[in-house]
Amino acid sequence: MSPSDHRTAPPLLADFPVHSHDKLRYGDTDRQGHVNNAVFATLLETGRVELFHRDGPLMDEGCSFVIAHLSLDYLGELFWPGRVDIGTGVLATGRSSIRVEQALFQDGRLAARAESVVVQVNNATRRGQALSERILRRLAALQRPAAHDPSP
Fold it and tell me: 114: Cβ–Cβ under 8 A, 6 or more apart, which residues?
C-alpha cells in the first residue's frame, strides 16, 4: 500500500504528533538543482529517530529497531538552501512492529509522504521481539490523529 492509499486528504504538518526538521545542505542537491531523491529517505530517518528517542530510547533493553519496509511518494521538489519540516506519527502496532506515517514539508508545501514498518529486534538473537506494554503505552500517545478533511 502506498502512503496515499489510506489517507484521502493531503496531510498538514499539524496532523502529526511529532515534528522535527533538518537543514538542507548544498551537497544534498543533484545536477537538476533540487534535492536528490535519496536524501528524502535520510530526512525521513531523522523523523523516525526523533520519534523513537523522544523522552529517552523507546526500544526495550537489549533491542534495537530495524526498518523492514519503506514506501515513499515524491510529490514535489525540495530546494537548497532551506529547511525541511518532518511530520511523524504512529499508524498501527503489531506484535513486534510499528507502522509509521511521515511527510516532508518545505515552506509549508507537502513534498513527500512515506509509510514505513519498523521492527523491534533482539540484539542477541537477531529476531523480532514483542513490543512491551511500556512501549505500547508510549506509542499510543504518538498515534497519528485522523487525517485532515478539507470537505465541509
Answer: 3, 40, 44, 70, 71, 72, 73, 101, 102, 103, 104
Strands (E), 24-108: 63-74, 83-93, 97-106
pLDDT tens digits, one per residue of 88-138: 999 999 999 999 999 999 999 999 999 999 999 999 999 999 999 999 999
Peptide bond into 81 cis (omega under 30): yes
Residue pLDDT, tens place only, 41-56: 999 999 999 999 988 8
CATH numbers and ranges of domains, the chain: 14-140 (3.10.129.10)
Q: Which of 15, 36, 12, 16 is nearest to 24 (CA)?
A: 36
Which residues pair with residue 99 across a beta bridge?
Answer: 92, 117
pTM for the whole thing? Answer: 0.89
